[in-house]
Design brief:
alpha/beta, Rossmann fold, Pyruvate-ferredoxin Oxidoreductase, domain 3, 2 domains, seven-stranded mixed β-sheet, six-stranded mixed β-sheet, 17 strands, 37% helix, elongated, binds thiamine diphosphate
């Protein structure tokens, strides 16, 4: 008997410490066989230099130690998204998404479903071993009814855990996939069939014809609690009864290849534009500048996020380092909205602001939630509609200003945030010059020039109100 040399895999695997010829897979596991089938087809079809395998989480995560081609890691279940990105950026790439049943059928199922529905150009190799192998044999979406796992110790009960998920059959409802096939690696005859399916899936990629999905029924002796032979028999007898083998769809003969490789339209334009944007002021180090950490809070729809952007933009114009970090409530309007802005004379470590120097509050819940966190010596600017139900921490100044009311009376109810910007400028708490805050305000209405003058007017009205009502000692 002659043994064929494995191709497309590294000569030796440098995992931890010494190079070895052994993979990390258990004896009788299907993953190693499937790796071999993939790399063999990849080499035989001349695709090695173009292939990028995306390995998310699961026993196959270490594929990059073995497969001699491009390899990229992905978060659990997110290989189709990563593969999509690779494909859109590098159309010459042959993308393989290599996923287990927990990864693909549970945490990542919507990712899988949407990529299949979009007909992404990728070959998805789905290793169905009916369990979460890597984490010690928990129940997977494909676990058989009655099958014992660590999380179904009495056997999967459909009353509480539902029925096995038939991924091929679900995907077969979609229009876009070109190939959908279920194979097995439980014995030699089946491995030969699997080999043909892998090859077909990669030919589809080579020819730019679209989405190919191959499911492998694969033994996991360790977690099935069986020896290698019995695990293979379990695959052939029990798993195949639930997951019949066969090709459900092969449209490769009629699928239309996508246009030849060319840079995605607009890529150059995009980079040219971003280069132009980067010609804008670049931050300059200034050790003497006192870093300011600000937090803007209120309801969604009150312009909280735009107010933060204005301050960050003013900082950019002043060549300060700056970050703007939004945090959205679940609703668009009426829910809570907050953002953090840091203005600094040096690169900023974290954009999160837990202990603000300045807090702007446009509603009561945010006053109650965030005022206790303001640093001693800091400042709270709060809308006058907010009852000060609790005192600010010791050493924290509070300026209550009728921003909402003033903007209503001036006929621009959406502009309370402009009043707050004026307060920040007048109180001199951002470390930024008023001219830059105003320039940033103007810039925020670039697309609605009619509002520029109106907001400048509101800004000066608010300034006049502050002059009249707030003692000058509060500034700075
Ligand atoms: C976000 C996240 N959730 C959970 C885990 C834990 N985890 C690691 S692998 C895995 C399941 C892997 O099972 P499967 O995809 O079937 O692959 P197998 O190991 O059986 O080949 C889980 C739940 C994780 N790493 N990340």
């Amino acid at each position: 008997m002659t043994q064929k040399k494995t191709v497309g895999m590294y000569e030796s695997f440098v995992r931890s410490g010494q190079p070895t010829r052994a993979t990390h897979y258990c004896a009788g596991c299907g993953h190693g066989i499937i790796h071999k089938l993939i790399t063999e087809a990849m080499v035989e079809l001349g695709l090695q230099d173009r292939t990028i395998i995306v390995n998310p989480i699961g026993c196959g995560v270490f594929g990059y130690y073995y497969c001699d081609c491009g390899n990229v890691g992905a978060a659990h279940g997110r290989a189709p998204a990563v593969g999509t990105a690779i494909n859109r950026g590098r159309r010459e790439a042959v993308v393989i998404s290599y996923q287990g049943d927990g990864d693909l059928g549970a945490i990542g199922f919507n990712n899988t479903f949407q990529a299949a529905s979009r007909g992404e150009h990728m070959a998805v190799f789905f290793v169905n071993n009916a369990t979460y192998g890597m984490t010690g044999g928990q129940m997977a979406p494909t676990t058989l009814v009655g099958m014992k796992t660590t999380t179904s110790p009495f056997g999967r009960d459909p009353l509480t855990a539902g029925y096995p998920l038939h991924v091929c059959e679900v995907l077969n409802q979609l229009k876009a996939p070109v190939l959908i096939e279920r194979v097995s690696v439980a014995d030699t005859k089946r491995i030969m069939q699997a080999r043909r399916a892998v090859r077909k899936a990669l030919e589809i990629q080579r020819d730019g014809k679209g989405y190919a999905f191959v499911e492998f029924i694969s033994p996991c002796p360790t977690n099935m609690g069986l020896d290698s032979i019995r695990a293979a028999i379990f695959c052939m007898e029990e798993m195949e009864r639930e997951f019949p083998l066969g090709c459900m769809r092969d449209n490769s003969a009629t699928a239309v290849p996508r246009a030849p490789v060319a840079p995605a339209p607009g890529v150059e334009a995009f980079f040219a534009q971003s280069e132009r944007q980067h010609q804008a002021p670049v931050a300059e180090a200034d050790e003497a500048f006192k870093e300011q950490r600000l937090k803007f809070t209120g309801f969604g729809g009150q312009g909280i996020l735009s107010l933060g952007i204005c301050v960050a933009e003013a900082a950019r114009l002043e060549k300060r380092f700056t970050t703007w970090f939004p945090s959205y409530g679940p609703e668009q309007r009426g829910g809570s909205a907050a953002c953090s802005v840091v203005v600094s004379g040096k690169p900023i470590g974290s954009p999160a602001v837990d202990r603000p120097d300045v807090l702007v509050c446009m509603n009561q819940p945010s006053y109650e939630r965030f005022a206790p966190d303001v640093r001693p010596g800091g400042l709270v600017i709060v809308d006058a509609s907010v009852p000060l139900t609790m005192p600010a921490p010791a050493g924290v100044r509070v300026v209550s200003m009728p921003a909402i009311d003033l903007s209503l009376r001036l006929g621009v109810p959406q502009a309370a945030n402009t009043m707050m910007l004026a307060a920040l400028a007048w109180l001199e708490v951002t470390g930024l010059r008023s001219e830059h805050l105003l320039a940033a305000l103007d810039a925020s209405f670039k697309k609605k020039p009619a509002l520029v003058e109106k907001n400048r007017l509101l800004f000066s009205e608010a300034t006049a109100w502050l002059e009249r009502h707030v003692p000058a000692e509060v500034r700075g």
